[in-house]
Amino acid sequence: MSAGPALLTIDHLTMQFGGLVAVDDVSLAAKDSEITAIIGPNGAGKTTMFNCLTGFYKPSVGRMLLDHPNRPFYLERMEGFRIASHAGVARTFQNIRLFPKMSVLENLIVAQHNKLMRASGFTVYGLFGLRGYRSAEGEAVELAKYWLDRIDLTAKADWDAESLPYGDQRRLEIARAMCTEPVLLCLDEPAAGLNPRESAGLNELLLFIRDEHKIGVLLIEHDMKVVMAIADHIVVLDYGRKISDGTADEVRRDPAVIRAYLGEEEEDST
Amino acid sequence: MAYFVQQVINGMTLGMIYGLIAIGYTMVYGIIGMINFAHGEIFMIGAFAAIITFLVLGIVGITWVPLALLLMLMVTMILTPFYGWTLERVAYRPLRGSPRLAALITAIGMSIFLQNYVQLLQSARNKPLQPLVRGGVEVMREGNFVVSLSYMQMIIIVVTLVLMVVFSLIIARTRLGRAQRACEQDRDMAALIGVDVDRTISLTFVMGAALAGVAGIMFLLYYGVIDFFIGFLAGIKAFTAAVLGGIGSLPGAMLGGILIGMIEALWSGYFSVEYKDVAAFSILILVLIFRPTGLLGKPDIEKV
User: Fold this and answer.
1) Alpha carbons B200 and B181: distance in angstroms, whole number
2) The pTM is what?
3) Which of B80, B145, B241, B293 is the most buried (most CB within 10 A)?
4) Chains A, B: CB pairs < 8 Å
5) Helix, strand, coil share (%) of chain B residues, nearest 5
6) How many angstroms away from the CA of B292 is the closest CA of chain A?
7) Are B171 and B177 in contact, with CB atoms under 8 Å apart?
8) Which residues in chain B have Cβ-Cβ distances shorter than 8 Å to A158?
9) Model pLDDT for residues B100-122, shown as the tens digit of each residue
10) How far is CA A232 from CA A36, A249, B66, in A?
């Protein structure tokens, strides 16, 4: 773990649905230029936590402080779209959610909507084809091309997103999230359903994002090979509680983690 | 033959007006999945705004027709979007996320409210307007039956086609259009990439209302008489057009409008004027039974 202040600090986050406590008093910190993996058995509350972070749910208790370069944001107080547009938190989903009827390129350009709207005087100039609009559009296309190149989809730029093979859709979703120019990228099981080769490509992409773009990455993942290979820092949840927190080696040896994954040890010898 | 051509011209003109209104239904349905039944009332308010503007211009002394038409168009296209925006803001936005039925009933309520509002302010009497655009060209002649295309009809057809092209370009090319399509396909996801969904929806209402306003002016100029109730029938016809073309599809709305206009004109021409509405609505029923997704609509595949 690198030193330095945390990019995201979650304090005592609790999310209750009626009697069910999906996330129970979880605190954690994630840093810039680091991949923080959140692992845990099914139903541990990982996705719920993401939903709180990105404004889908309002947490029952807790604070989520994002130390954005411009100014700090308390995410629990923000409206959903502002979390993306102002605080710079982007996410992907377990089940892919691209805009199916838009082209690959358009998916990447629409992600830059905010920047573009600001540059274009909220479409007004656009109707008159003013220069500011054109150049902003040009920049958006450049950024989109950069990511297309990164994820090897340049040749398929004009395809409808829905007609892409599964692995391509996964990568496109990550590229789209990156086109919003986030400071924190939340990935919900990006390796799910990928074959080993695609999975290796994904690792490379995530490491590239970490090292070249210096942003924080939060990663929910079941595939331990991926987690152990690329995570700088691992947080383990079980039944909504945090049971372990540390580097890959520390977590691997933690008896609480072993218990959660393999069940209680038989108490035959005592 | 000549009679048929004349009816086609009339039907085309009428269809253009329906099509313009239908676009508003279809865009709103596309983006929030509700039928804005108060949309016909926006059209009616557009017609009223135009006639009031014309009377005020008369008082001020501006009587040169092209200028008067232009000013009527401008005032209406500023006023009806304001109504559309307010409607969304006060009646629909608070209900976002509530069951569809609630939004539907609210829409019907707003429709009744707007009708009564205009009735109270402007009285229930018919409002006539003398024809502003006279004359036309002779298209063909058969015996002593002359097929004519009036200048008014030409204006309606040309203006509608121009607006159609402009709006298609907005949807296809601009950032606003892109945001609208994104919201249409996945509203939550659009918010997650930073699209202000509420504003995009507001702007959709604004665009639809502007088109309905233009349709209102055309209706006023074409028929020369309006009352507070015109929005109801025109609204339902335009809704039929939107369903016929495939609700959610912009070209579908236009195609549906033209078809409904044609059916009405031809039915009135060959069978009976009294039953023209029956003909139009029978089409709605048939489409709903045999092709619920409309002519250009794609079947809605359940998301897994």
Assistant:
1) 10
2) 0.84
3) B241
4) 78
5) 75, 5, 20
6) 21
7) yes
8) none
9) 889 889 999 999 999 999 999 98
10) 6, 10, 71
Region of residue B243 (left: phi > 0; alpha: psi -120 to 50; beta: else): alpha
Contact A125, A201 (CB under 8 A): no
Which residues lie below 8 Å from residue B60, measured CB to CB, with a gap of 6+?
none
Answer yes or no: do A101 and B170 touch at CB < 8 A: no
Q: Which residues of B85-121 are buried (b: 16+ CB within 10 A; e: fewer)?
A: eebbeebbeebeeeeeeebeebbeebbeebbeebeee
DSSP notation for A75-137: GGGS-HHHHHHTS-EEE--SS----TTSBHHHHHHHTTHHHHHHHTTTTHHHHTT-HHHHHHH
Residue B137, H or E segment: strand B136-142
Statement to judge: residues A193 and A160 lie in one domain: no
pLDDT, tens digit, 9 for 90 and up, residues A224-261: 888 888 889 899 988 888 888 888 888 888 888 888 87
Rounded to an integer, the average pLDDT of A53-71 is 85
Does A105 lie in the same domain as A154? yes
Interface test with B, best of A58, A73, A81 (most B CBs within 10 A): A81
pLDDT tens per residue, range B261-292? 999 999 988 888 888 888 888 888 888 888 88
Instruction: Tell me the residue range of the domain where A29 lies.
Output: 1-88+186-270
CA–CA min distance A17, chain B (Å):
18
Does residue A81 sit in the same domain as residue A192? yes
Contact list in B for residue A178 (CB cut-off 8 A) is none
Q: Are the CB atoms for B156 and B16 separated by under 8 Å?
A: yes
Q: What distance lies between CA A90 and its chain's CA centroid?
A: 6
**Is A191 found in the same domain as A83?**
yes
CA separation for the pair B84, B45 (Å, rounded): 10
Query: For residue B137, what are the contacts with CB-CB under 8 A and spacing of at least 6?
Result: B148, B149, B151
CA dist., res. A190 & res. A194, Å (int): 8
Say if residue A198 is in the same domain as residue A65: yes
Q: What is the ipTM of this complex?
A: 0.76
Same domain, A165 and A206: no
Q: How far is A58 from chain B (nearest CA, A)?
A: 15
